[in-house]
Write a structure and sequence with these properties.
It is built from 15 helices and 27 strands. By secondary structure, the chain is of the alpha/beta class. It has 2 domains: 2-308, 4-Layer Sandwich (Purple Acid Phosphatase, chain A, domain 2), CATH 3.60.21.10; 320-542, 5'-nucleotidase,  domain 2. It has a 6-stranded mixed beta sheet with strand order 6-7-9-10-12-11. Strands 3-2-1-13-14 form a 5-stranded mixed beta sheet, covered by helices on one side. A hairpin with a 5-residue loop joins β13 and β14 (289-294). The termini are far apart. 54% of the residues are buried.
Length: 543
């Protein structure tokens, strides 16, 4: 017992020294990216990022390159290669520390394992483990030395990954039991313990500074049930962390200071999405830690530019193929990258839902009653002008397959309620439809009860989803409707949807991008009926 007390006291002393690490003889500059989502040439771009990093190397020998996740998915280059091309670019840049985001798991666990092997620096994460033996699948941290000063980088990936990626990827072959866990619980105790244990371990090894590289999110815009998994919540309940380099919620945060459990400042920083900014954390020669965002790079790294152009040459002709034309923008996100489709109907939601419903004519069934798309599946806008195949797959980069299922009216009501639980806030699981309209009364507290993985468990209390109509008639809870959606939503528990009792009628007859491209080609010119960016009134929200 005495040994345990002494050990605990030692760890507290080490944690208390968190912000009093030895000062380096030269500045330590950590340049970082987060939520690039395959935006390799967007905004500053990877070549601009590499150029800036190289400029910092002229100022100090102590420069480290970090990414906080969600780089491999989100646009054409990622989808076509299942993320391999992005890994190739990151290796060329020379990243030193990378924590995986939830979307690094979108191409199956098998592909993630290949990522881990192919990424030169590897991944770190202190909270992803196999349930059977309770062992981490990745190193929890990496310690780097800068002269006589040591800095520990601790990785952490949001537990919301299970719901936000593809849940069945983390289950056994029978799709009955989870075999991986991200240590999520609705009070955040497991995740906090994972991070604190890693902090204590590296402090015991004598590191001077601790940086958490977390794909967690600082605001619960996309994690409405999981404030306990956000970086500010964790920073306030831990000791010994100097800074969080964060991602996931796409915030633009130069420097946010949160008091930790000892009342000391912890810096949280995040650089937005798609290389809108370069993030930088500096450990100065005075021992102080600071962070800022860089709005532009003064040049492009030629070698990285060549790598990107070489990769683009492998598929560029394919993605230039003409699909159609639109005289107005088709909207899913705003200019800052915020997800408009996650809290309101948009014209792009309507167009895609109509494409799904129309696609039923391609099948033996020949038609369907309803189609559903989940808001999280739409990743970008389509600008006014010619629509090419690259636009189509940029909107739908996951490559989900489309199918038809028989679904009871009651299950539809339950899933609409589940998708509406966060209104008027954002939720990637919000359902947009064709053939169906409904109203959400957000003044009513949500009756949805969730399980530990943010999946639909039950609905208890007054419902906020009202006036549900199928082709103008009140929905019949007892009737079985033919519904078009993706396998991800129906049978892979995507975004926590379970669609209890759904029976497969037509299996995986096309990918979502194939269905969407076909419909645009059929229309030729997008009709003015889709001209209102706010949609056609299929989903009404009372606030």
């Amino acid at each position: 017992m005495l040994r345990k007390v002494l050990a605990a006291a030692l760890l507290l002393v080490l944690s208390a020294a968190a912000s009093e690490g030895a000062a380096p003889d030269k500045d330590i500059i950590i340049v970082y990216t987060n939520d690039v989502h395959c935006g390799v040439e967007d905004n500053i771009g990877y070549a601009g990022f590499a150029f800036y990093r190289n400029e910092m190397r002229k100022l100090t020998p102590y420069v480290t390159t970090v990414d906080a996740g969600d780089f491999s998915q989100g646009a054409t280059m990622g989808m076509i290669s299942q993320g391999r091309y992005i890994i190739e670019i990151m290796n060329a840049i020379g990243y030193d520390v990378v924590a995986p985001g939830n979307h690094e798991f979108d191409y199956t666990m098998g592909m993630f394992e290949k990522f881990s092997k192919n990424l030169s620096c590897g991944f770190i994460a202190c909270n992803i483990r196999t349930i059977s033996d309770d062992k981490l699948i990745l190193p929890a941290y990496k310690i780097l030395s800068y002269g006589d000063v040591k800095v520990a980088y601790i990785g952490a990936t949001t537990p919301d990954t299970i719901a936000k990626s593809t849940p069945i990827y983390f289950m056994d072959e029978a799709r009955q039991n989870y075999i991986y866990t991200f240590d999520g619980d609705m009070k955040g105790k497991k995740l906090i313990a994972d991070i604190q244990n890693a902090v204590d371990e590296v402090r015991a090894k004598g590191v001077d500074y601790v940086i958490v590289v977390g794909h967690l999110g600082e605001y619960d815009d996309m994690l409405t049930e999981a404030e306990e998994w956000t970086s500010p919540f964790i920073a306030a309940r831990t000791r010994g962390i100097d800074a969080f380099i964060d991602g996931h919620s796409h915030e633009v945060t130069p420097e946010l200071k949160i008091k930790n459990a000892d009342g000391k400042d912890v810096i949280i920083t995040q650089s937005g999405t798609k290389l809108r900014h370069i993030g930088q954390v500096t450990i100065g020669r005075d021992g102080k830690v600071s962070s800022k965002l860089i709005d532009a790079s003064n040049g492009k790294d030629e070698e990285i530019g060549k790598v990107i152009q070489n990769i683009k040459g492998r598929f560029e002709e394919t993605i230039k193929s003409h699909q159609g034309y639109t005289s107005f923008d088709l909207i899913a996100v705003d200019d800052e990258g915020k997800w408009l489709a996650r809290d309101a109907e948009t014209n792009l939601c309507n167009l895609l839902a109509d494409a799904y419903l129309d696609a039923a004519s391609m099948t033996k069934t020949g038609s369907a009653d309803i189609s559903f798309i989940h808001a999280g599946g739409l990743r970008t806008n389509i600008k006014a002008g010619e629509i090419v195949f690259n636009d189509v797959i940029s909107v739908l980069p996951y490559g989900n397959t489309v199918c038809i299922a028989g679904v009871s009216g009651q299950t539809i009501l339950d899933e609409l309620e589940f998708g509406a639980r966060s209104a008027p806030g954002k939720n990637a699981g919000l359902l947009h439809a064709a053939g169906l309209t409904y109203t959400i009364d957000s003044r009513i507290p949500t009756p949805v009860k969730l399980d530990k993985n943010n999946m639909l468990e039950s609905i208890e209390g007054e419902r906020r989803v009202k006036d549900v109509k199928v082709k103008g008639k009140a929905i019949d809870p007892e009737k079985i409707y033919n519904v078009v959606s993706t396998n991800y939503v129906f049978f892979e528990k995507g975004n926590g949807h379970v669609f209890s009792g759904a029976k497969l009628i037509e299996a995986d007859f096309a990918t979502d991008s194939e269905v969407f491209g076909r419909y645009i080609r059929k229309l030729g010119i997008i009709p003015e009926a889709y001209g209102n960016a706010k949609g056609q009134g299929r989903v009404k929200i009372i606030k």
